[in-house]
Amino acid sequence: MTADHESWPTLDELLREEAELELAGLSETDAYELGQLAVAAARDQRLPVSVGVWRAGRQLFHCGLPGSTADNDGWLRRKGRVVMRFEHSSLYLARLCQDKQVTLTERFGLPASRYAAAGGAVPLRVRGTGVVGWVGVSGLPQLEDHRFVVDILRRLPR
User: Fold this and answer.
1) Residue 14 pLDDT more than 80?
2) Residue 124 is part of which domain span?
3) Which ranges of 67-114 does DSSP label H, i.e. alpha helix?
4) What pLDDT digit, counting tens, does each position of 64-86 carry?
5) In what order do the strands lie in the sheet with 58-64?
6) Rg (CA), the chain
7) Mean of the pLDDT values across residues 84-98?
8) How many domains are contained in the chain?
């Protein structure tokens, strides 16, 4: 494992984190408020990120903040596809691939042009239902993207 990845959470820690972030529900209004909460926090910190919230294959929220680019939007969608394919955070898949010393393409045959095993997208798991969507940011180093999203999700009522 490279030094860059030594401070990453383990796969078990990421699984526990996902379980901790389970929601009671996720309506369109909830998704909008989640997006607004993320944008407000990013603006307060002057972060150059794109923010997205998706549910049931539908984008319910998107905002590109100053300093973000169309490239961030592309990364955001690619990370989100990983979440919906595997029902785990994109950082979980990045860590899995890093631990196995393989790429997402080598391990699962998924094209890098459509899927990115890079931190920043987290599943929106609803109690009694499972994964219904995802929330993500792109624009920071991947571990920072992931930590930002987790921090926002921890602010939500359970």
Assistant:
1) yes
2) 3-141+143-154
3) 70-86, 90-100, 104-108
4) 999 999 999 999 999 999 999 99
5) 58-64, 50-55, 130-138, 121-126
6) 14
7) 98
8) 1
Distances (CA, A) of 133 to 66, 86, 101, 115, 117: 25, 12, 28, 16, 17
Output the pLDDT for position 2: 44
Question: Looking at the predicted structure, is the pLDDT value of residue 120 above 60?
Answer: yes
Average predicted confidence (pLDDT) for the chain: 95
**Pair 108, 119: CB distance under 8 Å:** no
Q: With 90 as the cut, is the pLDDT of residue 157 above it? A: no
Q: How far apart are CA 93 and CA 119, in angstroms?
A: 8
Give the model's confidence band at 17: pLDDT under 50 very low, under 70 low, under 90 confident, else very high: very high
Q: Residue 15 corresponds to which amino acid?
A: L
For residue 83, the domain's CATH number is 3.30.450.150
Count Cβ atoms within 10 A of the Cβ of residue 77 and give its class: 0-12 exposed, 13-18 middle, 19 or more buried. buried
Q: Which of 152, 158, 131, 154 is nearest to 42 (CA)?
A: 152
Residue written as tokens 């990845």? 5
For residue 62, what are the contacts with CB-CB under 8 A and spacing of at least 6? 35, 50, 51, 52, 53, 73
